[in-house]
Here is the input.
Amino acid sequence: QVQLVESGGGSVQPGGSLRLSCKASRSVSSFYAMGWYRQAPGKQRELVADITRVRMTNYVDSVKGRFTISRDNAKNTVDLQMNSLKPEDTAVYYCNAIGEAQYWGQGTQVTVSA
Here is the structure.
């Protein structure tokens, strides 16, 4: 059973930064893709960013230029660096991995408010 454990969430003021990290229980290079999703209250879960095995990246338009996804094969982690945070980035952020099945982490709360 694959486990994904997120860390790094918290509260920050608008314009601030946070770095989320997702540690996988097996090699991240074994997954076709890994990514970060988020779900705000009353809204559907949406893809924020993902990175494939060959390190191709994809971002939702609302975070382009502010968020950066990266993968560290040695540490088995996928990180999401979030800069210039806005109140609308407030959500629970979930790590996701796609391999022989789709796997999810438990989620970490990100709150952006003054």
Notes: The mean pLDDT is 96. Residues 65 and 83 are 9 Å apart (CA to CA).
